[in-house]
Design goal:
The protein has 8 helices and 20 strands. By secondary structure, the chain is α+β, with helices and mostly antiparallel strands. Strands 1, 2, 3, 4, 5, 6, 7, 8, 11, 12, 14 and 17 form a 12-stranded mixed sheet that branches. Strands 9-20-19-15-16 form a 5-stranded mixed sheet, with no helix packed on it.
Amino acid sequence: MRICRFDGDRIGVVKGDKVHDVTDCLDRLPPLRYPYPLEDQLIVHLEKLMPLFAAKAAVAPGLDLAEVKLENPVANASKVIGTPSNYKKHVEEAGRDPMISQGRPRQTLKEAGFFLKANTSLCGAGDSLVVHFPDRRTDHELELAAVIGRKAKNITEAEALDYVAGYAIGLDMTLRGGEDRSLRKSVDTYSIVGPWLVTRDEIADPDNLDMTLWVNGETRQSSNTRHMIYNVAQQVAIASTFYTLLPGDIIMTGTPEGVGPVKAGERMRASIETIGSMEILARD
C-alpha cells in the first residue's frame, strides 16, 4: 500500500495517478493525553489501520496526484538517523573531492557510527528545497529511507526488517563546510522524504532497488541499493544497539556516487524502483 500525507495533514492511499482520501479512518486512533508519546501514532497503529484504509479507498473518489500537495509521509518522526559513507564508490569520490571530505578521512558506519538529522529538517515532495546559504555549496544525496514500524532495542539482523513499516525516497541534503555533519545536514528542508510511504509487504528486497537522481534533466546519481556496504537489516539492528527506535523514526541508508551541488532555480527528480519518483524545486 502507498500511503501519503497531503493538503494539510490529510491521509491518502495512492493508486496509479489518484489519491483516495482515507483521513476519516484516523478517528479510530486512541485518544491521547499529555505527556504525548514520541511515536508517530499512524505508524504505531498502521497494521490495524491498513484494512480500514483499503476499504475506504475502494469507495472514496480519486483526486489527481498532480493537484494535491504531498507532504512528508511521517508526521512525527522522533529522529532521523543518517548512515555515513555506505557506498564504496561514494567513499572514493569523497576522497577525490575536498569539498565533500573537508580534509577528513572517510569513515564507514563501523568507524564513524551514525549521525542524527534534526526532525525539523523534514519536508515532503510537495515542498521546495530552500537553499539557506547561497554562498556555500549544498549537495544532493539520494537515499533509500526506511521507516521504523515498531519499538526496537537490541534486535538482531535476522529480525530487523520485521521492525520496518515501509520505505520512501530520501534526499539527504548537505551543506558543505567545516562544521559538524549533524549541523550541516539539519538545515530546514534538508531532509526530504516522499512522495509516500510504501509498506514493507510491497518491497520484498530493499537491498536490490534501482535508484536515480536527475538535476535539470541531467543524470547525477544512478545505482542500486545492492551496493550498500551495510544493508538495511544491518543498519536497523546496529542502530537499535545505540538508540531505542520508535515507530516513525527514519533511517537514511546512505547515498551512492554522483553527489553534487544544487542551486536555487534547479529542479531535482528522484526515483527509486517500486516506490516511485518525486520532483523538488530548489529556491532561495
